[in-house]
Amino acid sequence: MKYGSKILLFVREFKKDIAGAAPYTYLGTAKYVSHYGSRPMSITWHLDNPIPAKYIKKTSKLEVG
Asked: In the chain, which ranges are continuous DSSP H helix?
């Protein structure tokens, strides 16, 4: 990335939970791969480290490409 920037990827499954705003989970650093569309724009990232095993089941619902 330009100027030594790092992408830190935080995700959440839902916008809200019982307590209000749902917490984010830090998945680690990532590198940009590609993007398409607008409003919303879809971005493909390559994680520098594998997703922790406890989150794999939740992410299996996501499109991988």
From this structure: 53-59
Strands 16-17 and 20-21: antiparallel
Q: Residue 24: phi, psi to the nearest 5?
A: -90, 155
Tokens 């499109």 label which residue?
Answer: 63
**3-state SS, residue 23:** coil
Residues of the chain with confidence (pLDDT) below 50: 65
Number of helical H runs and strand E runs in the chain: 1, 5
CB atoms within 10 A of CB 27: 19
pTM: 0.64
Q: How far apart are CA 35 and CA 6, in angstroms?
A: 17
CA distance 46 to 29: 9
